[in-house]
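Fold these two proteins, one after the other.
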Amino acid sequence: MRRALALTVALLLLSCSDDDSGSSPTTTASTSTEAPADSTTTSTTTTTEPAPSAIALRGDGLGVVALGEVPDVAVAAITDELGEPSADSGWQPSGSFGACPGDRSRSVEWGGLGLLFTDGSTAYGDGEHLSTWRVSDAPPPVATAKGLGYGATATDAEDLYPDHVERVPAEDPFPAFLTIDAEGGTITAYLDEADSITNLEAGAGCGE
């Protein structure tokens, strides 16, 4: 009887020891921090086209300045468009540039674009004034209102100014040239053997 009772007590004690300890399992949350994906920033460079020059080759001037203008005003007008001149001869005896009107002449250049001033009388004025413009030798990107400029051909001129172009053949020592009834008056364009324009000019000019 005692052995049976002792066995029962032992079984009860064993049952109690097998109960849950009351502690809950601990779950560890693993937080993974991912580096943000590489983001490529596209740098967009906006190229602004320069405003077209207001200079236009005309029979009576250059758009921003007319033949007959006084030197300071004429030089300032072109400088506003093209920057400082690349050369300025100052006033020289007229023979320095050919048989020019007046006693003195002055040449001011922006690369291949040149202004010629005289202190004499021309159809454009008296005293010191702009008498001629000339284009030659890879000038700044200037042209007539219709787009005729240095390097164009005689055919281009005839296409742009139909029935307003006269061809004059070469006569030694002078090259062939065109007279073009363009905006504001007559422009003279000299040609090479391939009929490409190598020089343009308008105004009083100077003889040889």
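Now the second one:
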Amino acid sequence: MGDHQPTSPAGWYQDPGSPGQQRYWDGSAWTSQTSPGSLPPPTEPQWHHRVPASAWTPTPAPTATSDSNGYAVGAMVCGAIALLFFPIVFGPVGLVLAAIGKSKGERLATTALAVAASGTVLGMMLGVLLFTGF
């Protein structure tokens, strides 16, 4: 890979030693094959340098974002309900909705995930406190 030898495509080129003639370049060296200069006008060899693979940097794919926030809003509502009522039911539903919103690139999905998670945890803690208090 560290090989930086110049290369040129094989083909007929102006013979460097005989003006008016062409000589065949096999891609790495001149051959003994020659031709009169009546062929199409010769082209100069174009030298190319090999670029090592380590010099290439991949371009990251653009991340898709959604203009809709339906799943995220649903997750936040479930998180708020889970804080006061049935955290075992509404909490996981909110977390799933937030995860779906995140996978679809919804802008508010991260916030919805935090609201659903905190609503679930706080709702369970509040339920335990109320239950043990009676």
